[in-house]
Design brief:
about 20% strand; about 35% helix; alpha/beta; two-stranded antiparallel sheet; 9 strands; about 250 residues; single chain; 7-stranded mixed beta sheet
Length: about 250
């Protein structure tokens, strides 16, 4: 019984705790939709002031949201996380952002070589998660450049991670058995999220941050705090005053 109480205390203590780090930070990034002035402020990823945000790729548990103890509308949660990322980058860091596929719509001139948007996102996520010490393969570079050309942006933001909420079964086990398995299931509850920024000009991964928030006995952690922690390390975009449009060919 003492062990159970200790586990419960640990769970409550960990609830709301976050863990994260910037995992990629390239020393420089090259814009493709404008030219920086000669007296422009020093920036790396901030040079990519125009960003396209792809729909979030989120693995969820339980997949059937009706099994969550307090209900999980996964579609709404995914939409909300994507929009909060857009809002933070725009309002807190000064980037110009467009959410690709927002409202089910994709820019008409975004060809993607016939692939659907989910497949494209999954391909970039697979590369980002592997975190290889090399440039993306040609097909991934082509995807980034195609999105950049179609949306007229300097960078592409890929969001991915996992979310787990407590189910009715978790709560039943916790109240009925008084075993350590129930608190452990509670400790797993939370959201792990990563944001990767690809540079359009060269198709390179230039910035990546990962953050996890554990929710304890709550259904899911606060989204605003999660996104703020995830993106707080990213530098501000180069102000428009230090940019000029590229010469016409």
């Amino acid at each position: 019984m003492i062990a159970v109480l200790l586990a419960l205390a640990l769970t409550i203590q960990l609830a709301g705790c976050g863990f994260g780090a910037v995992e990629v930070s390239a020393p420089e990034a090259v814009p493709s939709t404008y030219q920086p002035d000669s007296n422009a402020l020093e920036r790396s990823v901030g040079m990519l002031r125009r960003l396209a945000i792809l729909p979030i790729h989120l693995d969820v548990s339980p997949e059937d949201g009706s099994q969550c103890a307090e209900g999980c509308d996964w579609a709404a949660i995914k939409h909300s996380l994507t929009e909060r990322v857009a809002t933070f980058l725009r309002d807190e860091r000064g980037y110009e952002v467009v959410v690709v596929g927002s409202g089910g719509q994709v820019t008409p001139n975004l060809r993607l070589d016939g692939a659907d948007l989910d497949t494209v996102v999954a391909r970039l996520v697979a590369f980002a998660e592997a975190r290889p010490a090399r440039s993306p393969p040609p097909d991934a570079v082509a995807i980034v450049r195609e999105i950049g050309a179609g949306e007229k942006v300097d960078g592409v933001v890929v969001l991915h991670g996992s979310a787990q909420a407590m189910t009715y079964a978790d709560w039943a086990l916790m109240y009925a058995t008084f075993t350590l398995s129930a608190p452990i299931s509670a400790i797993r509850t939370g959201i792990s999220l990563e944001a990767d920024v690809f540079e359009v000009a060269r198709g390179q991964l230039v910035w990546a941050s990962r953050h996890r928030v554990m929710a304890g006995f709550a259904t899911l952690p606060d989204e605003v705090r999660l996104i703020s922690a995830l993106l707080d390390p990213i530098e501000p975009a180069l102000p428009a005053a230090f940019t000029r449009e590229p010469p016409r060919p």
